[in-house]
Amino acid sequence: MQAAKLPLLVLVGRPNVGKSTLFNRLTDTRDALVADLPGLTRDRQYGSARFENRRFMVVDTGGLMPESRDPLAVLAEDQARMALEEADRILFVVDAQAGLTPSDAAIARELRKRGQELTLVVNKAEGRDRDTASADFHALGLGEPIAISAEKGQGVPALLRRVLDGLPVVEDDELPDEDGTVRVAIVGRPNVGKSTLVNRLLGEDRLLAADVPGTTRDAISVDFDYDGRPYRLIDTAGVRRRARVWEGVEKISIVKTLQAIEQAHVVVAVVDARADIGEQDARLMGLIAQRGRAMVLAVNKWDGLAGDVREQVRYQVSLKLPFLDYAPTAFISARHGSGLGELMDFVQQAYESTMRELSTGEVTRVLEQAVESHQPPAVLGRRIKLRYAHQGGRNPPRIVVHGNQTEKLPAAYKRYLANRFRDAFKLVGVPLLLSFKTGDNPYKGKKNVLSARQIKKKRRLMSHVKR
């Protein structure tokens, strides 16, 4: 069964209405630059989002300014219109504080011509009656507006329930394939050898490979068997810094790459041993880790490097990618085929780790051993107690820990627990996710009703106190 395509929500509107703030709220990140400056966003920004166990993607666009002659504004509008072509739902964002403007009306006319399903979002409505904040915008004729505050988060859950209604449900723990096929996404910067790697694994020149960055434009899936197990390799377009991405086709390729990451069981992140490991590599792998995907790092073009150069490359990997200490590293040559056996062994281990079923008894036992070895710190004289744990999902594996005052656990102790779980269950290549829940006091708010005998005893004691 093929994985469901993630729904795509596109944010549009004139500049400075809060689209980037809403993008950050939906994706739970600070990826979009936010400032009180019209036209700050020029390029499209893609992000992954999750709401009520459903996954989707969000696109932040530059402001639409129909009356502007600024060349950069025109380019930003072109990028926004490309995003609209991809949209499953359009969120037209307006400003409650500024009220209805001629630019809003002009944008509404353009969106109405498209015939796509859209929702009118009245932002910056904090501290206002929602009906009053939305009153002016009924004149646009785009249906019932929904008032929110992207900055405060007010009204956002209701907005998402309305927008996502009717779109395909891609649940947070939905498995991309149920027939045993392992989906492996091959990602990295342009010209690091991704297509060459896929061809070498297949044993044939199935994909076009050349020493020209950007040869691959789409995410291409290829099925093959390795060691008796079915695999689906997804060769993706190289991801470059946004400042260098202008062509519309390449923009769409980046969406495909992000969707491939979301739908994969394991991601093979390829870097070039003969080039510097840069910020873009770290950002891409940080995104993979953030999405909880099992990952294997492949350092390509390893053949022919001198010993001192190899040591320098190993040092650069540990220096610039310290957050990938859980991900195994394979040093390979896609062109000559060296190291590919070890790479596929790591992929198999990562798949088994991300799909592993953990019993509540096993997980709780590891938690108890971890607490016995290293107690949680005390808070205001009260010791934090961790009582039991259970598995909360797979791909990525998620463990839910129950106790009291868990919200006060320091980050260092949470990392300690994650490492203990990872070591105990021999999890390879997965960023183990921990959730903490504080149980309610069952006696909170309940009055202790005394028996007749207890009441007599209390009166007797009180009489002695008075004497």
TrEMBL record:
Keywords attached to this entry: GTP-binding, Nucleotide-binding, Repeat, Ribosome biogenesis
InterPro entries: G_ENGA, GTP-bd, GTPase_Der, KH_dom-like, KH_dom-like_a/b, P-loop_NTPase, Small_GTP-bd
GO molecular function terms noted in the UniProt entry: GTP binding; ribosome binding
Transmembrane residue ranges: none
Any one biological process term the GO annotation gives: ribosome biogenesis
Record flagged with keyword Transferase: no
Residues where GTP 2 binds: 188-195, 235-239, 300-303
Span of domain EngA-type G: 7-171, 182-355
Highest taxon of the lineage: Bacteria
List of residues binding GTP 1: 13-20, 60-64, 123-126
Statement: the UniProt record of this protein carries the keyword GTP-binding: yes
Annotated Gene3D superfamilies: 3.30.300.20, P-loop containing nucleotide triphosphate hydrolases
Assembly mode: Associates with the 50S ribosomal subunit.
NCBIfam families recorded: GTPase_EngA, small_GTP
Family note: Belongs to the TRAFAC class TrmE-Era-EngA-EngB-Septin-like GTPase superfamily. EngA (Der) GTPase family.
Physiological role: GTPase that plays an essential role in the late steps of ribosome biogenesis.
Protein name: GTPase Der
UniProt gene name: der
